Amino acid sequence: MSRWTLDDIPWDRFDPSKVDADLLAVAKAASLVERNGGDYATYLCNVFADDPEMQEAARAWGQEEIQHGMALGRWARMADPSYDFDGAFEKFTRVIKLPLDAADSVRGSRAGELVARCMVEVGTSSYYTALAEKAEEPVFRAICRKIAADEHRHYKLFYVHLDRYVAREGLGFWGRLRVAAGRITESEDDELAYAYYAANENAGPYDRATANRAYARRAYAVYRRPHIERGIAMAFKAIGLDPQGRLHRIATSLAWTYIRARARRLAEAAA
């Protein structure tokens, strides 16, 4: 069960003068991805069909993801009354479809599926923390803080089940690393790019590269080094590496250098 509801959001504190157009654009995209949590929960329940404990966790997680989408969508409509959240979601789900009839994980094993889920929560907990710290609009900041806390708790949830399945299936370090690396590269697949397009573009055909650049330019700009450092530590833990060692420091420096450079290139290209 969710630990907060939409009634806990201080909607009456909304300040339109502090809405940032770039943050509004990424919030619209995020509202669609989060709202689709029910389908992800269905997929996980299929993969873990004989594991009632994991199914219960997946259903609760899915409901919280849906609530994230509803909160972001409601805020986006306040910030931009022309935003058709329901219409954008319908457009998004016509194109982005999950393998709801799959009985086995697309990651090759249940342990691999849980590694992938941990990596998603690494990304979202870091991202919403960064958004909350960047935002000046009080309601959006409050929503992002609540979502960030949920996503961090979701990471812990999936990690507990990952421990169970690693012990059961014997997925080693290299297998976990392969799944984690694959999931990271998927961060620039059609889901986020098309969510950005469906939520923000009202005319013209979909072009993945254009939409991806538009989304990434805004998303990369919100990160600061502590967000990357914390995210790398969580990722290292999921794949079985020391989250505080020398390798973590090297990986953090490399990732932060890449993100700053990518953000700069995207900003220069847009200008």
Q: What keywords describe this structure?
A:
271 residues; mainly alpha; Ribonucleotide Reductase, subunit A; 73% helix
If you had to describe this structure to a student in words, what would you say it looks like?
The chain is mainly α and 271 residues long. The chain has helices at 21-35, 37-47, 52-79, 85-95, 110-134, 138-169, 173-185, 190-200, 208-220, 225-239, 246-270. Helix 2 (37-47) packs antiparallel against helix 3 (52-79), helix 5 (110-134) runs antiparallel to helix 6 and helix 9 (208-220) packs across helix 11 (246-270). The chain is globular and about 55 Å long. The termini are far apart.
CATH class: Mainly Alpha
**How large, in whole angstroms, is the Cα Rg?**
18 Å
**If you consult CATH, what is the topology?**
Ribonucleotide Reductase, subunit A
* Structure classification: mainly alpha
Strand content: under 5%
The number of domains is 1
Helix content: over 70%
Please identify, by name, the CATH architecture: Orthogonal Bundle
Spell out the blueprint of helices and strands.
Blueprint: H1 21-35, H2 37-47, H3 52-79, H4 85-95, H5 110-134, H6 138-169, H7 173-185, H8 190-200, H9 208-220, H10 225-239, H11 246-270
Helix pairs in contact: 1-3, 1-4, 1-8, 2-3, 3-6, 4-8, 5-6, 5-7, 5-10, 8-9, 9-11, 10-11
